[in-house]
Amino acid sequence: MSEQNGPSEGPGPGPGSDSSWWPSTQTWKSSAAASSSTSSTPTSTSVSVSCSASSSSTSSSTSINSSTTCCPSSCIGVSCTMSPSRSTETGKNVSVTTINVPPNQEMHDAKGVCKYLGGQNGVTVSVVSTSVLGCGNANAVPTSGICTNTGPHSIGIGIGGILAANAADIDDPEDSDGEISKIDFRGVNLRSKKKRDVSGNQNGEKIGDGEANGDGGGCCDDNSQQQPERPMSWEGELSDQEMSSNTITNQDHNEETSMEGVQVCSTSPGPMEQKFPIKSEPDFRSSPGFSIGSFHDGGLPMTHNQQLQQQQQQQRGIENLEQTQQSDLPLLVGKLLGGYNNSTPNHSPVLNPRHHLTKHSHTRSQVPSPDSAIHSAYSVFSSPTQSPHAARHSALGAGSPIPSSSLSLSRHSFNNSTSSLSLSLSHSLSRNNSDASSSCYSYGSLSPPTHSPVQQPRHPHSHSQHHQHQVPQGSPLHLPASSAVAAHHYSSSSVPGSELSSDGHPVAEDQEDCRLPSAPSGISTRQQLINSPCPICGDKISGFHYGIFSCESCKGFFKRTVQNRKNYVCLRGAGCPVTVATRKKCPACRFDKCLNMGMKLEAIREDRTRGGRSTYQCTYTLPNLVGSPAGMTSEKLTTAGNCSPAPAGSEHHYSVRYHSNHSYKMQVVPQLLQDIMDVEHLWHYNDNDRISGTVECSSNDSNNVDTNSRRGETASPTDSTLTGASDQHSTNGNTTNNSNSQIASNSNGNSAQHPDFLSNLCNIADHRLYKIVKWCKSLPLFKNISIDDQICLLINSWCELLLFSCCFRSMSTPGEIRVSLGKSITLEQARQLGLATCIERMLTFTNNLRRLRVDQYEYVAMKVIVLLTSDTSELKEPEKVRASQEKALQALQQYTIARYPEMPAKFGELLLRIPDLQRTCQAGKELLSAKRAEGEGSSFNLLMELLRGDH
DNA sequence: CTAGCCTTGACG
DNA sequence: CGTCAAGGCTAG
């Protein structure tokens, strides 16, 4: 890893951040290298336990010790693992994200407990203790994940908890917050300071990002006053609380940040998407259900009828499943889904192998390795040739940052019509393009944005949106969002000059075609354009940079951001105003705006070659507004038609460039996708959950009544993840026996020895399961599926879902997988722990996500697609499931086409990653089973953490 | 990190 | 040689 050590890259491309997608060489290389190297390592199941064991035992550098070190109970959570920063190989600091144990931990735990006790209904302390004991006990343990709930109460947890949690979910904001505050956000984007190499290597740079941010957010240097500076990450800005909370103990080494604190939004590649609204989730702990857990009670967000039906169905389904399947998971899932209650003996789900799962796994296993992923990220961007369409339209590409708020915006109904596909037209331009075809600039007035000629809203339909300030100052070129308008396009050549009229002014031809309000063609001169305000910040335009006319500062900012692969996260969830005065405050939003306004990543030269003409292809597709496939309304289409792009062969395409965020979103994001996104917050795992989970687990286990009790069959997803792996594989695969046997083994082995471990498992499993089920039940497409099938689907996909979530979250930290809050693991560390196979695949998968610049919308859509995989023979209504999946696929396709016209193959590429995910999952499960067998607690815990959901 | 200014180099 | 966009340098 050359310069960038894997970890170090941290700042790197976050999922959200653009940089992530950036073709960046180094990062990729490093990662690639790593992966490749690793690849050599046996992917197969057998992980060398020995290694791990030793390593684990030794806290060695990597120390991932978890629980033990910390409080046992709490273990998982915060405390655990901290690995001091370790400088990685390369000289650079790599930051491995180390996790420090927060001093607070104890607090947390205690707190958690307290909450738990107090908060929860009936749960008594005694219970807790019991459960704890239980966990500790060999018996209970294994199951823990699942078991967690097991106690009589346990059930409650599972289902009850969920139910209880239900919508309402009792959140304790406060608690949460408090907890959150304690959390270490180091990871969050702090940009490591980087020194700049004289040479200006990018490599080194990554490191550099951050310091400023430090906690406060270095990003905005200046701003501090106005706002405390916040660390940025693509994910979003941290809330104030978070900010305050962040205590970062950084280790010197780490400069990078992990995004942990940020909730997630996981990464989205695009800055836009990145900003996922951060919601803290309700703590289910607080929910009575949890403690007590009668699953009966809990109500997921469902109507009563639904609930009733579900319950009925569930029971039936569950029973069926039980009969048919023997995996633990199903039961648990079933319970969760349906509230099915079974009091079965508790076994640890985790331990139990699930056969069913295997089936898929097998299939999946066959899937080609992700290795390909390694290839370059470059490919996409770097070579123009590859993507003819490469150019990102400002409009389209620009993903307008979608502020969290945006979610609330009214949605358009989008037509799913595929027609949209056709919309994207692209040219590929060569760097030297002579062809510079026409570009359309809307000249209109030089006047300030408000005055922009374009003012007419281009989109009649645009809903009222509240725009966020972000609106540009509206240079004629770039219409203010509010004004929505047309923009100029250039067609092909990146070289502005080409576009210019003889005068040297950009040709406005298109405008007319496009009906842009802007001034008549020819009227404005380039100079005029230059005189207009920078569409990003409103400053004076200095020229045509990276695809748009912008000021020198934004040009430089964009360059630095891309070259250095910065991952900025808006702590506020996006939507920060970007003006001359505020542009320094939130680089995340500024970068988003750069993209939104049309700056092209492709314009940044990987090789940093100076001079000459740009080779990047400028492809302009029809304006999304008009044509966006996804959501366009007919009207819009019509409009588009007017603007009709140049004839297919023609080189010139004109499109409206500017889209307000709002309109953008509406146009590009299919309703279904938006609906899916709206429930995404249910997925995220937050600290509170964790903590609470811990408590719960402990409490519940011992008794375990039933809940989870699965006849040993069920495993919580988490567990299953672990175990499941084995199961699916068949590695372990014992069906029936497994659960018991496993449990036994566990109990005997490590589990007994590591109460913490067990409790952790319980916590994780419970929480994740809870979250996942809750999420599933809220999914638009999932609700209509019968309970039986819901259970089946969840059983078959939970592992993929968890891993996907983890990998997506890790997009911003090349070379490392973000395990949990602040914690991350590098391949090297994984090797020491004997987890190389799994981590390697995860890194590879993550690299692919980064390369593809998977954004939040794509991520959520893919999760649904994965969830709705109907390739199982166990489905009762496969057609229905298939139909649902098809809808999700359609929505994703529409979105990718509309949002990333320059990446026409993105949809297909995204789907091609699913097999990799499945393989990765298989590897993870195998590892888990192996670890479990060997009893390596720490490694096992680590895996659990890996599988854990987002925070 | 920011942003203004400088250098580079393909084109015309 | 001028233009112009991309990268580099560096004071702040």
Strand count, sense and barrel status of the largest sheet are: 2 strands, antiparallel
The beta-strand count equals: 6
Mean pLDDT over the full residue set: 48
Helicity, in percent?
Answer: 40-55%
CATH topology of the domain at 671-678 and 757-947: Retinoid X Receptor
InterPro entries: NHR-like_dom_sf, NR5-like, Nucl_hrmn_rcpt_lig-bd, Nuclear_hrmn_rcpt, Znf_hrmn_rcpt, Znf_NHR/GATA
Biased composition (Basic residues): 353-363, 458-469
Subcellular location: Nucleus
Biased composition (Polar residues): 379-388, 715-729
Q: What order do the helices and strands come in, and which of them pair?
A:
Elements: H1 18-21, H2 25-40, H3 49-57, H4 105-119, H5 125-136, H6 140-147, H7 154-165, H8 173-182, H9 202-208, H10 240-245, H11 271-274, H12 288-291, H13 304-324, H14 328-338, H15 355-366, H16 371-374, H17 377-382, H18 394-397, H19 404-408, H20 420-423, E1 439-440, E2 489-490, H21 496-499, H22 509-514, H23 526-531, E3 541-545, E4 548-551, H24 552-563, H25 587-597, H26 624-627, H27 634-642, H28 661-668, H29 671-678, H30 687-703, H31 717-729, H32 736-753, H33 755-778, H34 780-783, H35 787-809, E5 816-820, E6 823-826, H36 827-833, H37 836-851, H38 856-867, H39 878-899, H40 906-934, H41 937-947
Antiparallel strand pairs: 1-2, 3-4, 5-6
Helix pairs in contact: 2-37, 3-36, 4-30, 5-30, 5-33, 6-30, 6-31, 6-32, 6-33, 7-14, 7-33, 8-30, 13-14, 13-35, 14-35, 15-31, 15-40, 24-25, 29-38, 30-33, 31-33, 31-35, 31-40, 31-41, 32-33, 33-35, 33-41, 35-37, 35-38, 35-40, 36-37, 37-40, 38-39, 40-41
The chain binds a DNA duplex (12 and 12 nucleotides) through α21, β3 and α24.
